[in-house]
What we know:
Layout: E1 2-3, E2 10-15, E3 20-28, E4 38-43, E5 46-48, E6 52-53, E7 57-64, E8 71-78, E9 82-90, E10 94-95, E11 101-104, E12 109-115, E13 121-128, E14 131-134, E15 144-150, E16 153-158, E17 167-175, E18 178-189, H1 196-223
Parallel strand pairs: 1-3, 2-9, 11-18
Antiparallel strand pairs: 3-7, 4-5, 4-8, 6-7, 8-9, 10-12, 12-16, 13-14, 13-17, 15-16, 17-18
Amino acid sequence: LTVGVSRTPLQKNVSLASPTKIELTCKLEENSNLKNPQVTWKRGSETISHTNKTQNSWTIQLTISDSSQLGSYSCILKGEVEVSATFHLQVPHIEGKEKPIITYEGDLAVMVCKTEYVPVAWTWYMTNGTELVAINPSSHTNKFQFKRQSANVNRLEILKLTKEDNGIYWCEAAFRLGSSKRRFELRVLSIMAPLKPFVAVVAEVVILVTTIALYEVYSKRKEK
Length: 224
């Protein structure tokens, strides 16, 4: 990350799927007025030493072997002002639809998860109260279908939807350094739901026409 003199800390997410060695570097802008700053590297609130220094850059070398070494690593440059940059080391996030999936009884619901890196395994869950229950494809062949579109894209299809399928679903991608989850909300509506506004309008028209007709009959009788 290249650090200027802005008081707003720089942020960068770094995705790691498996154990690896990595270098994090903070570099001061060439035209910066911050000369010979005092530089500190921290992991969270713990101060750590940097392993390489040039005139305008400071580097730490890390060996990430397990999930406990993930987290936030920051470089803090102090001089006339204080500036900083933070690297967030994390397992890859899962991309997926954020808005609720709204469909109708008898239809098909589709949920798709995608990751930047290839996971070791995929798992889908449905929510039962506060518990997550893994969906077993072999025992739910008439209800659920799993389709792996590619090594890093996984798709769940829920067939013949009913009201009982309403709820929260999760997909989980397991990596060697940990796992990520993505939440999906499914709303199954009655097939009559789209017709309710139309039925309401028709009912209002019928009431209006009937009222006008009765008024005309009443008016004619009154004239006689």
